[in-house]
Amino acid sequence: MKRSIPILLYHHVSPDRDITPDVFESQLRALLAQGYRSLSLEDVLRVIAGRSPANQRGFVVTFDDGYLDNWVYAFPILKKLNVKATIYVVTSYIERQTRPREDVLTLDTRTQEREIGQFLSWGEAREMLASGLVTFGSHTHTHRGWIRTRPYLDVKQELVQSKALVEAELRQPCHHIAWPWGEYEEAWWPILIRLGFRSAATVRSGANTNGINPFELQRIKVVHPSPQWLLSRIQWHSSARKAKWFGTFYGLDQRFKQWLKPESPYSHG
Fold first, then answer.
1. What distance in Å separates the CA atoms of residue 19 and residue 96, rounded to the nearest whole number?
2. Which residues are paired to 199 by β-bridges?
3. What is the pTM of this model?
4. Which of 29, 144, 169, 177 is most deeply buried (CB count within 10 A of its CB)?
């Protein structure tokens, strides 16, 4: 069987969300108990390039947007279970505190989701990076709302600005990007290459295996709290053949939604 590496997409891990801290921990524990190994995006890129065999079952954890609950609730669980993750941050949203916040009592991630105080600070990002478990990528600078009928003329500036900020604040190269709402154009790939990006993540399901385009990484959006639901998705996406089949039929549903509605059909970017 030709293996594929499933990449999980999370946004929030919070008591006021379906993916609570207990749910997040139980999902990761279930995967580890079944013999799946925590991998990084760099591990995936080595498999895609044919430099490393995909001979072990694994999974990758990613977060989009860079919410504060990633620090408050998700990061302690990642450390407890020694699980790696990549967080794609919207650099205009990241807050300026130089020290991690230690007195966060409650978060309202629903009615105040995009408000000041709801996002990571650079201080918290640096602390997470220092753990060796978390890496940071770009989710563009402004998370501009994508509407298919309007050209996205300033995409290069979005990428230049976000990449430069991540690298200046974290003093680490920024090699990875996730497109807001998973929307992109193939014409942008040369821009990514020139700027030094090595991968780009979508919100489409499918196979991550040897020979695929690293600028079209496929991800599983985690929307259900059941560990059994996640295990079933992981099992489907651990086989390249099954993952491609699943992505084809799931993609038909997404394309139909896009045809009906010109704006992005996804609830998060």
1. 27
2. 176
3. 0.92
4. 177
